[in-house]
Amino acid sequence: MLQGKSFLKEIDFSQEELLHLIHSAEKFKQMKKGKVVHRYLEGLNIALIFEKASTRTRAAFTVAGQDLGMQVTYLGQGEIQLGKKESVEDTARVLGSMFDGIEYRGFKQEEVETLAEVSGVPVWNGLTDQWHPTQMLADFLTIKEHFGDLTNRTLTYIGDGRNNVANSLLVTGAILGVNVTIIAPKALQPEPEIVQLASQHNHGAIITITDDVAEIKGTDVIYTDVWLSMGETVDFKERIDQLMPYQVNDDLLALAANPNLIVLHCLPAFHDIKTEIGQELYDKYGYTELEITDSVFQKYAPLIFQEAENRMHTIKAVLYETLKNH
Ligand code: CP
Ligand code: NVA
């Protein structure tokens, strides 16, 4: 049912299709763990275009494609003519004539939409400024693995409430019928059209948008992401001051008052100063941690890294389901 389709944003797929992908990922995960060979797509070629940096998404598409028996070609930022000497349309015509599918991570959502329209092959959005759909499959698979099901769960995203990950969580939660609360300062809450999309595709989820941190109470999942996304040019210090009251720390966990809650993060995370930017922020302003404290991060690290691993199994499901019977 997903054959030949692109995955550009969550609403491209129905609830049934998203659940099917999560189920397919569970099967692929079992096969991988059991060392069962699954080279179902031998002979196919896929291209991975990355206009922004990536560890998880790039690694996941590469390993998933190779496990399925495909040849995987990485086309990094500045390595092809795209943008500088050639339009998205012309690049799409060329790549579509050679590759069987294309992953694209970039800035504007319109670019990945054009790529899909013109190339004529399945295109998978590996993150744009607006959406991060493949991340969602890994996140909801991890929640399902942990709690056994998704029914009646509440996920609370706290932090920059209008970035790609927040948008995607809001809409995916609605499609899957998982309650989503977004806690963010008013200036960083989701755009009205994103909230509208979520309500148009809602299957019984309670959607809450608030700046009140107390709304964390009783949540099953706390989710956060970086406070400054790739490509944003705002003053980082201003953003930090705006979001520090929304940090995921021990006080927030106490306020949630749910001994069974879990914490997720799409990664990368600023939980210590073992990075160039982390060290720089420490030298300038004295912060050792931003959106999540190191103590909370370490407590939930096994699940957070399970979530990261699940990127590969879920992306494999997307590749397989959209390319099979090619
Ligand atoms: N979560 C995520 O997309 O990570 P990367 O930026 O490393 O791909
Ligand atoms: N919101 C982040 C997600 C990274 C996976 C960004 O766009 O940089």
* Largest β sheet strand count, sense and barrel closure: 5 strands, parallel
β-sheet strand percentage: 5-15%
Instruction: Name the CATH superfamily assignment of the largest domain.
Output: Aspartate/ornithine carbamoyltransferase
CATH class of the largest domain: Alpha Beta
Mean pLDDT across all amino acids:
97
InterPro entries: Asp/Orn_carbamoyltranf_P-bd (IPR006132), Asp/Orn_carbamoylTrfase (IPR006130), Asp/Orn_carbamoylTrfase_sf (IPR036901), Asp_carbamoyltransf_Asp/Orn-bd (IPR006131), Orn/put_carbamltrans (IPR002292), OTCase_ArgI (IPR024904)
GO molecular function, one term: ornithine carbamoyltransferase activity
EC number: 2.1.3.3
Catalytic activity: carbamoyl phosphate + L-ornithine = L-citrulline + phosphate + H(+)
Please describe what this structure looks like.
There is one protein chain. The model has no long low-confidence stretch (mean pLDDT 97). With 326 residues, the protein is of the alpha/beta class. Strand 5 (154-158), helix 6 and strand 6 (179-183) form a beta-alpha-beta unit. It has helices spanning 15-33, 56-67, 88-98, 109-119, 133-147, 164-176, 192-200, 236-243, 250-256, 276-285, 294-323, and strands at 45-50, 71-76, 101-105, 123-125, 154-158, 179-183, 207-210, 221-224, 262-265. A 5-stranded parallel β-sheet has the order 7-6-5-8-9. The chain has a 4-stranded parallel β-sheet with strand order 2-1-3-4, with helices on both faces. The protein has 2 domains: 10-132 and 311-323, 3-Layer(aba) Sandwich (Rossmann fold); 136-308, Rossmann fold (3-Layer(aba) Sandwich). It is globular and about 55 Å long. Helix 5 crosses helix 11. Bound molecules: phosphoric acid mono(formamide)ester and norvaline.
